[in-house]
Amino acid sequence: MEVLEVRAKTHGSYEENSRFCQAIKSLMQSTPNWNRLDAHQKETLEMIAHKNARILYGDPNFVDSWKDLAGYAKLTESILEATDGSTDVRNVKMTKMNGEWHDDDSI
Questions:
Q1: Total structural domains in the chain?
Q2: DSSP letter at 83?
């Protein structure tokens, strides 16, 4: 079986994927924050759209597509974790004592 035939089974039709991806990319680019994103953030979102198309138009049980989704997000996560000024939710264990919440670090 030729490579393109195999890919069509796992990834779906290239034409359908292209229409979906271009529509999603157009929507993403129309949002207020698009121009604030770094190149890696834009590329990650575009690649995730691409992988979503493969899942929605191809084989939704093709594990590699799901791994790729997580992989692109992880790449941007790693870049942001090394970037000054990046923000995140502080995840700490809290304990309620005498009706008040306290960080376990402050107890």
A1: 1
A2: S
